[in-house]
Amino acid sequence: MEYRNNDPGAVQYGNFINYYEFNNAEQRLKLLPRDVWLETENIPSAEPYLVLDVGCNAGDLTQLFYKFLNECVGVPRNRKIQILGIDIDEDLVQRAQIGNECAPNVSYTRLDIMDATAFEEVNEYLRQYNRHSFDVVCCFSITMWIHLNHSDHGLQQFLQKLSGIGDLLVVEPQPWKCYQTAVRRMKRAGDEFPLFSELVWRSNVEECVQKFLEKELGRKKVFECLPTRWQRRICFYR
Ligand code: SAH
After folding, report:
1. In angstroms, what CA-CA distances link 72 with 130, 133, 237?
2. How many domains does the chain have?
3. CB 143 near ligand 1, within 6 Å
4. Mutate to test the pocket of ligand 1, among 13, 115, 121 (most ligand atoms within 8 A of CB)
5. Predicted confidence (pLDDT) per residue in 167-177, tens digit
6. Which tens digit of pLDDT belongs to each residue from 93-145?
7. Could you tell me the pTM of the whole model?
8. 49-54 vs 134-140, strand pairing mode
9. Which residue's alpha carbon is nearest to atom 21 within ligand 1?
10. How far apart are alpha carbons 215 and 209 in whole angstroms?
11. Which range marks the domain in which residue 143 is found?
């Protein structure tokens, strides 16, 4: 991977190579609740529990999340967990594949979720299981990157499309302060996010995301975690 100005912190998509050295995956996982994952606890199901992890980076969080879900719904409910992790960055996906301790229940694919054909591949994965939606779609720390690269409309489309294929949506949006840091780093490396200045969703971006999910997409927020060490709020929508 080539870095702008040799700065691994100045990335276009959040595809930091050393992401988990500074955003600890274990700590975030500890904040997750154990009882939101199934809508109706009492209805037994023989179906695998399907998860899409959008922007999985090198897979560290995905691997831990798999083990966590196995404890919450896998073993106690006798459900087989299947996670598909996708990321735009080829090198990161390759690292995730090499470090995958949970194959074949966890698999990784390189995909740009904003690419029209990406949804065909994701739908193909669902078809293998005769399903139209995932039990959970995870968007951990990715909304800002979609927003900076695809503007307000792109982020809205992202939320709408993922909402269409996820029963439970887990979203950890970056607050505005992160945007300012990302833009500053990019500038220092002699580059920019050209769409940044035209964003309408700005200082209250987390609220905009929530309102859009609730008002436009008819989702209901069912849980919010305590803030992460980076002051991000992991929110759950049904
Ligand atoms: N979800 C992980 C990593 C967050 S970093 C976690 O919270 O621990 C954001 C990740 O999103 C990066 O790895 C980046 O490559 C990926 N990403 C950004 N834009 C993307 C896109 N359009 N499609 C797929 N992945 C994308």
Report:
1. 24, 20, 18
2. 1
3. no
4. 13
5. 999 999 999 99
6. 999 999 999 999 999 999 999 998 999 999 999 999 999 999 999 999 999 99
7. 0.96
8. parallel
9. 112
10. 10
11. 19-237
